[in-house]
Write a structure and sequence with these properties.
It contains 6 helices and 13 strands. The chain is of the alpha+beta class. It has a single domain, classed as Jelly Rolls (Sandwich). The strands form 3 sheets. It has a 7-stranded antiparallel beta sheet with strand order 1-11-6-13-4-3-2. A 4-stranded antiparallel beta sheet has the order 5-12-7-10, with no helix packed on it. Strand 8 and strand 9 form a beta hairpin. The protein is globular.
Amino acid sequence: MLVKLPSVVLTEQQVAQYHKDGYLIIESLVPEQVCDALKERMTTLMSGFDARAYRSIFTTNEQSRHTDQYFIDSASNISFFFEEEAFDEQGDLKQTLELSINKVGHSLHTQDALFRAFSLSNVWGSMLKQLGMQEPRAAQSMYIFKQPGIGGEVNCHQDSTFLYTDPMSVIGLWFAIEDATLDNGCLWGVPKGHNVGLLKRFERIAPQAIKTKMVVMKEYQWQDSELVALPVPKGSLVLLNGEFPHLSYANRSEQSRHAYAVHAVDQKCDYPEVNWLQPNVGNVFPAFQANT
């Protein structure tokens, strides 16, 4: 890392707020130089991507979610997913590649040195323990672009739908690499909505299978009136309970909204073999390391 990350000791009030509301915002935590370094590194990774070889479009509609081998393999490598509106009727990109990618995932935290150093810092591991995790592990990571003009809407969802543990343990760490505003697609969420419980599970039809299914666990519909906006400045961290319902609207502005997310699970909890994302090395997810 270019700059040492600041250690964080959460106050009793912050811990209580997280458990009560299902989320916690810590503004301007990550130094600007670190945000810029991650953004620059992603630009370098993008330059090595051959768009002609893979055109896997990321969609937030679970019923049409791409579940091909490329998607499954992304659990253990760095994969690129296009915006739904990136291509014209002839299948050609409407704009440059850099403005066409929706996200990159899902193992930046293991496959790239800079993202690994940031993602696995014990600063985050310590924070997760303060929130109640016994043995936090980093299961998934993704860099989200929210491209200007075509940044797609992310429907209301719960992160534990995709990373189920028993008992529930998922916590998302969502970092604003750029300012997240009402205009460019900031997060929205339902305070206390995590108390409803998990509604769906996205899983493989069987261990090691490529085909997946969405299992409805509970029928419930959050109302738009319950949503609150969570705009944050660059460098902010939003901690999300795995059952916290959240979304982001489409970005029709001229300003991108880059973000980086790491999802952690507790190693002490059961992690089913039918979860779509499975650990690749030693059958365990990587632990958070000493401060960098």
